[in-house]
Predict the 3D structure of the following.
Amino acid sequence: MADRKKLLEFIDSLLKNNGLKLRRGFGIGLYLYNQLKDSAPPYVLENLQLFDRMPFEKKKALLLDLRRFLEEFGGYPRKREKVKKKKIKDFLVPIEKLKFLDEKEVKVLKSLGIETLLDALFFFPLRYEDRRPLSSIRLAKVGEKVVLRLRVKDVRRVKDGRYTAEVVCTDGTEEIKLRFRFKKNDFIFALYRKGREVVVLGRLKSFNRERYIVHPELLREGEFGRIFPLYYVRAKGEVTRISSRTRQNRVRQALQKAVQKTARYLPEYLPEGMRKKYGFPEIEETVEFLHIPEGIDLKNLNNFSDIYHRRAIYDDLFLFQLSLLLKKKETELETSPRIDLPVDRFIASFQEKLSFRLTNAQVRVLREILTDMGKEHPMNRLLQGDVGSGKTVVAIGSALATVQKGYQVAVMVPTEILAHQHYVKFREFFEKEGIEVALLTGSLTQAQKRSVYRHVREGNVKVVVGTHALIQDKVEFHRLGLVIIDEQHRFGVMQRKLLLEKGKGLYPHCLVMSATPIPRTLALSVYGDLDISIIDELPPGRKEVRTLLLYESEKDKLLEAVKRELSMGNKVYVIYPLIEESEKMELKSAVEEYERWKKLLPDRKVLLLHGRLSDSEKREVMEEFKEEGDVLVSTTVIEVGIDVPEATLMIVEEAHRFGLSQLHQLRGRVGRSERPSYCYLVVPDSIRRSDADAIKRLKVLVRTNDGFEVAEMDMKLRGPGELLGVSQSGYFGFNVANLARSHDRAVLQNAREDARELLEIDPRLEKHPELRELLLYRYGDKLDLSYIA
């Protein structure tokens, strides 16, 4: 690198006279690139290559950032010395065996789920904070978080109704006030003694030309002076007794030790050609810069758009796609029962057994399923469709084909209510065919369970519907040919595997049904090991549910609507988000509101359903509602699969508390007949003023009944974890990637294509041992990738 002093002088000359030289000069970026190419990190060089085409303000900002770094930190690190790389398995050492970590650090890391050195290195910050003190209060912008080095001039108690104590400080040029609201404030006088030098962090406010910070954080030595990484520190166990600030400091300290002592030995696991294709830095450099950022633009860091975050995001998505494609390839090697029959003739015969016409989409999807099942390798197919599109009848048709060829069918669902409902539907159809259907759930008596076990084992029962009770060791099938799994995201991949392993030498075909419409990008990510079929047409006669947004001040309209529907012989759902009052959030309680609705409708049968009832109690309430109830007050336990054709009105209180896809599912409980149906989304009047985004979100449901459009919007707003009911880090194993970000969704397709190309030339990753080792560590157990181990 060129002489630092000369570089600083050159940058100063460009910025002089309001940047006159910078405006007129050309080739500046190329000159700086050549001066720094041996020492600056890739993101700086990337910006310098584009420098001469940048607008003036962007050039100026980049030069200021470059200058600040050269001045404060003495320049960029030189090229790293070459060290002998270790293997990934060397980084799987438990953190308690790392001598450079003390007992407290080990305890706080373990509380965050960090078990190995590799976990620690890849536990990246959530966000970053610029803790470099400003040289003057005048440079601080109102509304921004700032770090200031100050001297205390005065400390006093105040009684203005808002604050209880005030500290007057100066930086030598201007005054600023630090304000506090604590009732007991003696400690303020101890911390901010007159004449003391302090460094504070807080959001700058201004009123009547007076600048102040409310409840600033008093920073200790070592807590400022650079860009600081901030980690997720919401721990479990006894470490929760420690303040989050102490946890944050311990985590940062422990991880920085781990990075400084070991990151340079990390082996590069991405194929070289792939890394160079995207211009990614090496993994050791990526890990170092994400934990100890130096000279990186703060905005880029917090937008996850710098080259290091881009590498980490790609790695997350590439590894996950690789694992899914490996799983798919493994499944394709298995041998399955051939459900080989004349497809079109079977569909025509199946249609004759039904009292309604199948839609074109249902016929198309059934044909795809039957064609797959006619092969000797397993079908692994995801069946998607909007609420009410008729997925269950397609499942029944698939089951009938399987039974006709002499095989059994297992239908696994997440709840007992849903199990009973499927059982009734399957039994109604198969009884006419003289085919035995059984139900297996946890609430059956031991004698009933033993009877089901025996008849399934002996092959007398051809179709068994149940909850996760189906995967218990005691359940043995005579000839299992098809597994149907409803609401897949409620089951782990291993649970799916346990059921599929009951095929006794033959691998059963697998049909996964998702009640929640899933956008294509997310379906590729979550179900990348499955082929996808979509029912994109609703049966004739199903009317769209009209959705309206109501404020609490319009409650009279609500009561009128309820009375109107009841007078026509229809039924009503009223949904609340909590079972009982929460002190923290004053949400309506289903229990309390149930009492209110009983008083409002004294001559009507009002019932209550919530999650704390046992499965058999829930079933009884639902049956009673179906037979003779008028209004069902419920929490979201009715979200999936409940079928009451007479229900025409859905009221969702505190609707802003729910996700869009969840609301769409709730809305799907009405409109299940030809009767006009309605959904009222009720929100407090205050939300209109305080949360415009929530109102905008809810208006998506008012505008459209298309579940796929709703799901796409929900994913953009809240992320796929919310859509699936799982956390992204937990379910996907992601360290940084987040499919709620459009950039990350765009990367997903590239990552999948790259994974596919790599497996074409190296099907078991034998030529990429470090990549295979990392993949097995991340997904070996979760996806059962033992065949490549």
Confidence is low (pLDDT under 50) at residues 579-587.
